[in-house]
Amino acid sequence: LDDVCIKMADGTDSGFSEGQPSAPVGSSEPLSPDMDPLNITTSTVDLEESLDMGAEGDSKSAGDDITTLTQTTLAGLRLDDALASDVHDLFVTVDDPEKHITNMESYITYRVTTKTTRSDYDSHEYVVRRRYQDFLWLRERLEATNPTHLIPPLPEKHSFRRLDRFSPEFLKTRQAALQKFLSRIVDHPTLSFNENLTIFLTAKAWELASHRKQAQGIMGKMGSSMRNMAAGYMLKNRSPEYATMQEYVNTFGAKMGTIDRINQRLLKEMMDYLQDLREFGPVFTLWSNSETELAPAMLGMAAGVEKCEKALEQQISDQEHVFAPPVKEYILYAEAMKAVLKRRDSIQMEYELTIEELNRKRNDREQLKVSDQSYSLGAFLGKDPEEVRQQKRTKLDSQIEELLKQVEVNNDQVECANADLKADLERWHRNKRRDTKEVFTELCDRNIQYYQECLSAWEETLQQINQKSELETSSTLATPSSSCPATPTLATPTTSITPPLPATPTKEGAEGETTEGQDGMQ
Question: What is the pTM of this model?
Answer without folding.
Answer: 0.67
